[in-house]
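subagent[fold] <- orchestrator: predict structure for attached chain, return tokens only, no commentary.
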Amino acid sequence: MKKTFLILVALCANFFASAQAVTKGDIIVDGYIGGPQLISRISSSVDGYELKSRGFGPFGGRVEYMVTETSSIGVESNYASTKLTATYDDNIDSYKQTTSINRFRIFPRYAIHFGSNKVDVFYHVGLGIALWSVNSEINDPSSTVAEDQKFTSSSSGPVIAFRTGIGARYFFTKNLGINADFGLGGALFTLGLSGKF
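subagent[fold] -> orchestrator:
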């Protein structure tokens, strides 16, 4: 048992000691698309009330600089948009409400890297800001008050953005590869292309 454990430790040490996919001084650029956008998956219809949604993104990118052989600093940003449409019609009253939600997030990030000669596995954490813009419009033609027939409101502002997760890059050439990331704070999953300079 002791020999088996020592052999496993030696194999793991050899795996991590071999040439790494990224090294000190490398600049890594990732472009990605993420998902699922949970808010855009809403759809229901009950007793004259119907709710539909659609959206795209998040689309994003990140740039990292390898400070040491195993750690990097960088910046990440992404954008997502969602449109919700609610209609109500019971043959007596009817109205339609449209809400657009746009989100832009940007934050510095820190990552710890593990891996071998073509695979870069990393844990990352980032903290920054998210800019939200919410615009809502209600059309109620059945209202007898002219001001209530069409009502528009909007709000926007920054909030704290946080993301942490684990990801990987596979370089199929010296400088070009693919990336995948699972995390919390933003998209649950991202997939894209990577460049190393």
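orchestrator: received. Logging for downstream: The longest strand covers residues 94-115. Helices lie at 2-17, 146-149.
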